[in-house]
Amino acid sequence: MAYTRKNVNRLTRSERRRLVDALLEVKRRGEYDEFVHIHIVHNAPDGEHHLRTAHMTPSFLPWHRKLLLELERALRRVDASVTVPYWDWTRDRTANSLPWTEDLLGGNGRRSDRQVMTGPFAYRAGYWKLTDRVTDVRYLTRDLGRAHDPIQLPTGRDLESALADPVYDVRPWNSTVGRGFRNRLEGWGRGRGSTSWHNHNRVHHWVGGVMLGAASPNDPVFWLHHAFVDLQWTRWQQRHPGHRYLPAEPPGVRDPQHGRIVARHERLPPWDVTPDELEDVSGIYRYE
Fold it and tell me: DSSP state, 110?
């Protein structure tokens, strides 16, 4: 029977506590850091010449769907009532709204070093040391809204610009494409700085701290953010029935993208699953 992922602002006090407790236990068991490591290893940009799976590629959405599912399964092995909620950043848009509460994810980082000092994932609480990371910092950091150069979270209109595109992805299947739902949602744009970050990417920059790099799953908000991104894929499928993950076939040997992207029926490393098999998860979970 399919379980339900809720909007984080609809969680009861008990559900918040259960989610936090499950996250802390998965971290204590060492499983959480494995997910961080997977994300670091598979975070290959356009400029690298081997297979890209996690970002700047059509498999951005199924790859993160699978990673999210694996984390959720780990949480549910601890507490079968827990599912990953989603954070609707088009509505809960300030550093004082959910999920930045003392009983959930804690708040912003302090001004001096951006270290998160509140909530269950603060380093000083003793349960959340960053062990798989890309910097020497062992504590969770955030810079909500980017104090030195403020930016805003994406709006409903920004999200609509992605959902309205009926084509999943287009050549050359990377961060440079100006059309296609995948990149409009992932958020790579032209130019430099904040004007080139859209939707998914802009949220990472708005949160700041460890969410800026390949080790971004070290911040638990990563999962709530990606649950909302995953929901958009579901909504896009409902709006554009008959449109599928692309490319359907791998690029030919003379194509610059040959061997660099995952086609619909190809295995999606590091798992033995294809994008095709991840397009319909209605038998596993649904969104409320």
Answer: P
